[in-house]
Amino acid sequence: MRPWIVVWSKLPASGMALFPFILVKNHALKTDRSLINHEQIHLRQQLELLVIPFYVFYLLNYLINLLRFRNHHQAYLQICFEREAFANELDFDYLKQRKLYR
User: Which top-level group of life is the source organism from (predicted)?
Assistant: First the structure.
């Protein structure tokens, strides 16, 4: 799946996956392979969970982590979807070998 990459300068992060788009903060990030791979992992996660449930689980996981760690950044890093994406963002063949519902 080849994602549509959209530049949005007001994005609060460097990149974000909102199925079926990858949003990036500036044009230079369109060629950042690890960022695009990270966001493509999120697109696959979203597709597997039929998009809307992904966002529900993502938000619930974040809120639980926020209560647990009382720190936004730590809560974000511990979201199960983010952990998978960060762990594999430099493996450019990851999505070819990834099992369903990892």
Answer: Bacteria
